[in-house]
Amino acid sequence: MGPEPGYRSQNHIAGHEGIGYVVKSHDLSLLGRPVAMRFLAAACESCVYCLRGLQSSCPEQLNIPKHVNGTFQHYNTVPISCLMPLPAGLLDEGRDLGKYCAALCSGSAALRAIRASNCRPGDVALIIGVAGGIGHLVGMMAKRVFGLKVIGIDRKWKIDTLQAEQRAQVADVFLPTPGECVERESNGLYGFKSALLSACTQLRGDSQLSRYAETVIVTASEFSAFQNLEEYACDGGSIVCVGVPRGDCKLSIPLATLVERSLRFEGSLMGGRKEAMEVLQYIRSGLINPIVTEVGLADVPKEMQRLGEGGVIGKVAVRLSG
Description:
single chain; 322 residues; alpha/beta; Quinone Oxidoreductase, Chain A, domain 1; Rossmann fold; three-stranded antiparallel sheet; 11 helices; 13 strands
């Protein structure tokens, strides 16, 4: 694995989420200030996209580690505009700082995706890829912040790996992926849809009008996760795509289905600093508790390989000191 197109081909330092202190600056008032670095490091805040809350489309944006070296290093020299100020004293509270890192990109992406769905308290949300870095945060916030009933879908071994407390935080009901159902059951996709409909009915506590989920959020990055999405949502439902498979993948849905069932499809990339700060406060207050595995800098190549193979549960954070 190496840098994507547009990144430095040599002397590339990866890492797109990080938290630390300012240790050297021309402005002495900044010394000791807690700050964060995130992929969407800076935007102009004055173009039509920024003014509409779409900083990820700003033509003047700076990204870490694309335009500025990443966070996998003890000291980083960056423009002050690329640093996100953090609340004073945040890093002195004795909390697990790796969990705060989850708020910066994955957390902001998760929060933005939930809001893009136009969900209402009590709605059933289907989260595909619920054990992943973004997916588990979507599940946690959907339950604890937005009051949704959550059905989580992921590979069975990932679901089984989650501890009981983590399972309770992430989703109300878990189902294996449709692909696993097809492999193990003779009725395949029909069996998965039957289990999904049953779970939706169970969570609503109302069998008078059985229907699928009001919200479907896809955080997985495998193309198979994007198949048959319209069949998992009820009429008037929203389908939000956050994960992006590699390659020239295309989403297909019959236009008649889209129109006659009043379905909404939306893409959602990531939130800005506002969303990141909101998620950070959810973590700080204990409302959500991200699943984070801390590793050393020497473990990064191995963890990147696991990440590429889909073998990671939640987030991985690199501790560089302390």
